[in-house]
Fold each of these.
Amino acid sequence: MTRITRWAALTVAAALLTAGCSGGPSGDDGENDGRSGSKGDGTALDWGRCKASGGAPAPGGDWQCATLRVPLDWSEPDGATIGLALIRAKATGDDRLGSLLFNFGGPGGSGVSMMPSYAGTVAELRERYDLVSWDPRGVAASEGVRCRSDREIQAAESSVDGTPDTPAEERTYFEDAADFGKGCQKAAGKLMAHVSTTDTARDMDRIRQVLGDDRLNYFGISYGTELGGVYAHLFPKKVGRMTLDAVVDPSADTVGHAKNQTRGFQLALDNYLKSTGRDPEQGSREIADLLERIDAEPLPTSSSGRKLTQTLALTGIVLPLYSQASWPALTSALRAAEEGGDGSKLLALADGYNDRDASGRYGTTTHSQRVISCLDDRQRPTAAQARRLLPEFEEISPVFGAFLGWDTAGWCHDWPVPGQHDTPEVSAPGAAPILVIGNTGDPATPYEGARRMADELGEDVGVVLTWKGEGHGAYGSGSDCVDSAVNAYLLDGTVPEDGKVCS
């Protein structure tokens, strides 16, 4: 099982950012070396100025964009092609090591939009690397898939209960899931069967070639860790310096991932509640009671007559748990809902996660996430199986358990194309050491996944670095210990001791 459940394993900042650039050049950038040579595949990249997209201006400065053509079907390399949108900023120093490719998670996150915003975090790495990212196939500017209209999305948000309590709500829940899949199939066409993580890993090797690098230097975050592991399995001898941060557990299947996230988000909620002086068990029960009241009677909001449903409230609670810096926003939103009966702040948080702007337009991240993850995952739990799982999920978390339990069956219900495997293959014998970073307080990709990823990569390949922190991801989150270890590895090739712990 390769997908993360409904709550994406995505760098949290990406859920709050608008797009800054789209694929494709827009005129000459004035440099003589704007064209990247290939490594024997007959392809070159024509770099140019980035275009504005998503209502946001194009990134300025040194950012360049290009489009790379790759096979739609890698089993037919001379057949139809699709375009991949890329973005880069060249190394600032003279002692250049090559390119460093980034994937920020999802699946479904846009690297073209995220990379300029993340550049400040990795400024030291840019001294010796060209910073490069891309929109994977089926995402945003790379043949991005939109499965339903904004009006249809908003209608579903108000009418579909993510934790159905009656036969009628259950029918609506599964009918909506099937309808979403049909919309994806209509929008994606032939692409629907060619957006798997394996397809994207093969795209990554083509990107490596056209960038002129003998080996792939890579920084994968969240779902990007799974993508990195799959790449390492397919191309172990092409692995350069690879860092995997906020690690997806490659050994977990559909139900296993859902349980992992249920435990992870409950742990993060417990830690948040402790920080406010509340007893975690009592505080969780109070939040669960609030959600039950909202389920019976959605809260009014200040957003054009929209109401806060139970599912939207739950999503609003999830978003700030991705980052400790956002915990005060959660306190304010919960207080407004609990004491004032006002759902506006929780709705705003849910809209941030669901990629909805103030004008009511929705991004396509969740569409792409579902198309990719349901192609990866061949397991299809039934409604009856989900019902039987509910007591166990609710025992793990009274707040998140029911939603993630139902999601095991609802996410890929009646999906138009079959999935590919139960769990991803990430074994990479013979690969160079890969740095695997786990954060003990990570809600979306719990810490245990880091050790399991390292074990599956293989002996002398996976090297675990632990951070005892909060939030989704470790690098750039305030730990000098983590940042120094990662920078030493990527810049100097210094591999930390396996099991190193940063407090």
Amino acid sequence: MLAVTWYGWYYFKDLEDNLTTTDVIPNSVTESPDGVARKPLDGAVDILLVGVDSRTDAQGNPLSDEVLALLNGGVADGTLNTDTMILVHVPQDGTRAVAVSFPRDSYVEIADGFGKHKLNSAMARQKNDTAQELREQGVTDEARIERESTLAGRKTLIKTIEGLTGGAVTIDRYAEVNLASFYEVTQAIGGVEVCVNKATSDSDSGADFAAGLQTIAGREALAFVRQRGGLPGGDLDRIVRQQVFIGALAKKVLSTGTLTDFDRLNQLVTAVKKSVVLSERWNITEFAEQMRGLVSGNIQFRTIPVGEPMDTWGDGNVLPVDPVQVRQFIKGLAADSSSSSSAPATTTTPTGPDASAITVQTYNAAGVSGLAGTVLDLLARKGFQRGGAHTGTYSDTTAVRYAEGERASAEAVVVALGGNARAVEDDSVPGGQVHVHVGADYSPPDSSDPASADGTRTAVAPTTGLTPPITADGVVCVN
């Protein structure tokens, strides 16, 4: 135990001493652009994980033609876009984490006065403007121009994400990976397990995957997270790919002996140093200590609510975003975890009135087209009286609301939903009725569950990804 403890400390120290860092997070109130202390709402750690399409390594050195060919990286077009943006929210106790994806084509207000554009252009717009300004000022050192303009671009991206959350989150850590990062890290840990619904291929990303469960590393890992051609959901399916990949990566590191395998740990640390950029003043040793209680099953993946794709004159095809919905969504993540520590949902059949005596009203609180009607159909098949399907206010969680003294009716509905909801007393609900507010966490009941006695499993597509909710606790088959 002493040997392993010393070895881990040595390598964390070595990692901190040799990391590539970027000064994008203000260190004090005076450094903050608005003069307001940068503290998250609940003392949590909020990390912005960014994947860029850069053809350079973490130190800014160009990737060789051989490496680009191996990675199917293609030729750089001079634009630094952020194709992956994930906000990782870790509450104070460090025992759980939620990773929220922001689609690259989200049509949002870009910070620093750039107007409304695709989210993935935020860094590039500021980077290009800053580079031009420096050249106009007479700066000729291209290394300095690259360094300062990239730094400005990162800061604009951070402010854009924070603005989109309406102040619900203050980003206090930043991590950036490039094309080579997935290759390096997955090679170091020996690959991860993923599952594909159907065989798929794409010449742009180099993807060529058979259906079913498989282990991917290196080039295949990069192709897996980059593919969007040939996928029914396009970039939204790619986001799901990225989520299941990161989940599998977390499971491999947290649930196996990776951190006690000296040779593999050495390879992992070397890979991180080569290909990852972290914000300055990030104490990795302290962070690792805070995360000691985290296990793979306590990592969940979500995606902000977006609308159906639409065409714009200046930005092409985009995904419309309702800032109010996004703010409600993110604020739910920053709330206290009291609901997660409460008693588990009922999973046995409760006593109470027969299903035929309960009228169910359903409310779509997830922004998923047709979801309220789908859930109402499901409950009607289980014998409940059909009420109406309505549009509700967005909610991160599914709630079954009931009148005073009628909890048993609500519990019957919770069971019919497979336990994927919580019962909440609500004075506004009429007697004899139960109101189901179907939130973003909803997943259809498992057909193998006794609560799904009719054997029916209704396929419900979440806002993005067309797949059930993802955690790092198992392999989810995806497009």
Amino acid sequence: MGSGQVTDWQGKHVTVAGLGVSGIPAAKVLHGLGARVTVVNDGDDARAREQAAELEALGVTVRLGDGATLPEGTELVVTAPGWKPDKPLFTAAHEAGVPVWGDVELAWRLRELDGREPAPWLCVTGTNGKTTTTQMLASILEAAGLRTAAVGNIGVSLLDAVLGEEPYDVLAVELSSYQLHWAPSLRAHSATVLNLAPDHLDWHGSMEAYAKDKGRVYEGNRVACVYNVADKATEDLVREADVEEGCRAVGFTLGAPAPSQLGVVDGILVDRAFVENRQKNAQELAEVSDVRPPAPHNIANALAAAALARAYGVPAKAVRDGLRAFTPDAHRIAHVADVDGVAYVDDSKATNTHAAQASLAAYDSIVWIAGGLAKGATFDELVAASAERLRAVVLIGADRALIHEALTRHAPQVPVVDLDRTDTGAMLAAVREARRLAVEGDTVLLAPACASMDMFVNYNQRGDAFAQAVSELGA
């Protein structure tokens, strides 16, 4: 499809797969560049018809209820990231020799539109912690006086970021495995894979394919590939990546860092990667207490964000100031209240076992509220790793039996309350049971290890229900 200059798009037949947060902006941008745009969408509900009417008023063709057929004459498909690669539309595109891009690929191709100097991309992916790390990175970059934004899978639209009238200095880009799958040309300034654990395997088909898509973020990196020392799979992805000459592998660790790593020494985040004579020297960046909350997995997020910022040349003071200024989003290991000496913590965002294990590792004596949609996950490893921390467990949701079975195998001594209900009111019952089981000094932790859609619209609503239930304990 050419280099992405305006003349490349005039009259081009582009099919956009999917309405929604990425499809509609892509259709509008492409139409504005002179492309002949057809949007195809599987759904044909009231919301889709409303969105279609908006686009059709601009001159965009929309086909609802037919996301399988490749429109005749299509020269490029731009897809919403969630569309699975095995859809008939993509098979037809492949057979016809038509390239398929995601919205990230489109933004990457358009970043030099009108001869503008594009902002470098600092990219973040991983199974868990992407959003927090990206937001931390943006906060650090802002503390350094740079015009930046958290974009990609969160925040500002990537298309808006690269096409806006006022250019950014640098972008903090969160990328999902879906987005990376459809972004073959992406070449970041520096990037990190925070961790790797089984997730979205129904979409990718295998753990190997999932890891391969995550590893795309390292391809063509110019300055640094940042990996997790505690997760060898992330370092393996760095070794496999084809990067620019001079690009360095930089690790982060919760222990004392070796040369070319960032880590923690006596409660201080330190840098032994972006300093002179890193064999002997280290630069203090911030205190562990500057990271909120200072849970182990969140300290790892902060180290990864700091590594990317340092790769871009940000001074140590900006790392400290940026971490201090950062406030995490709701439902991410958020302290809700203390009631009768028991802490109540909302980590509804822990929608898979890897995230839940990190959350459980942050506390010593836990009454754990868990359950929901397992999405094919197994729970033996999670329960075995966390058993000694569990005082009791309250189970809710459609797939709670899977967690119960793992508890029976690996933590038979732990009391379990199995609430046989999936209505939204179950959360109040779960919190009341947790209060009955907890003693002073315990933490009641909502870290479901499952998706929320069996009972709630999303994890936000689930977390809100938990907080509301906690507020009613004294009623």
